[in-house]
Design a protein that fits this description.
Blueprint (H helix, E strand, L loop, with lengths): L3 H4 L11 H10 L2 E6 L7 E4 L8 E6 L4 H21 L8 H11 L10 H10 L11 H8 L7 E3 L8 E4 L2 E8 L3 E6 L5 E5 L3 E4 L5
Parallel strand pairs: 1-3
Antiparallel strand pairs: 2-3, 4-9, 5-6, 5-9, 6-7, 7-8
Helix pairs in contact: 3-4, 5-6
């Protein structure tokens, strides 16, 4: 990723106009960037240099929308700078990482790289960044609008009595709570609680 030609492919994954602000991170540091298939548990990952592999290594899920991709990339770059300054003497998502992430991300705000609702949620998230954007419901939902799959929806966006499917099992929304929903498993009648930001396959649509 050191040379301009090798970096050109990265631009297609980023929000329009943001590439030139990302390039300096790769010019000033030796980073091995890998795009991976979708991983449910993580959006990205940072690994520090070793004797066998002397480069900083960052992996990002290649299926992310441009805004999630940029945020995740900067999240992992913040891990890199935290490692450079503190090695392994601090917590992965402690105050040191939070400070680095805020410093790195703030220059990307107010440049129209993010849609208005995403930038608003991102600013709130920066008050106390967490290990994953998935833990901030407002930011997660703002970003989700840009990577929806046909036929899928968040539980928060569904109405009472709507039906959905998870891993081949059918459920019905019984009651909407503040951040969750009570749902009935239609095969056994048992009740389950689903988080509002849980993605499900819609089986019917109510007006």
């Amino acid at each position: 990723m050191k040379h301009e030609k090798e970096m050109a492919f990265l631009e297609q994954f980023l929000p329009a106009g943001s590439f030139n602000d990302v390039v300096p991170f790769f010019k000033e540091n030796i980073i091995y960037l890998t795009l991976t298939h979708e991983r449910k548990s993580v959006l990205g990952d940072y690994r520090s240099p070793t004797k066998e592999i002397p480069q900083h290594r960052i992996s990002i899920n290649g299926n992310l929308n441009p805004y999630s991709f940029l945020i995740t990339l900067l999240h992992e770059i913040a891990h890199m700078f935290t490692y450079i300054k503190f090695k392994n003497s601090v917590q992965p998502h402690g105050n040191e990482w939070k400070n680095e992430f805020k410093i790195i991300l703030k220059p990307f705000l107010d440049k129209k790289y993010f849609p208005t609702e995403v930038e608003k949620a991102l600013r709130n998230y920066l008050n106390n960044p967490a290990a994953s954007t998935c833990t901030d419901a407002n930011l997660f939902k703002a970003l989700y609008k840009y990577d929806k799959k046909d036929g899928y929806i968040l539980v928060d966006e569904m109405k009472v009595n709507q039906l959905f499917e998870v891993e081949g099992k059918q459920f019905q929304i019984i009651e909407k709570l503040r951040t969750r929903a009570r749902c009935k498993n239609l095969s056994n009648g048992k009740m389950y609680i689903f988080q509002g930001i849980f993605e499900v396959k819609v089986l019917n649509n109510l007006n």
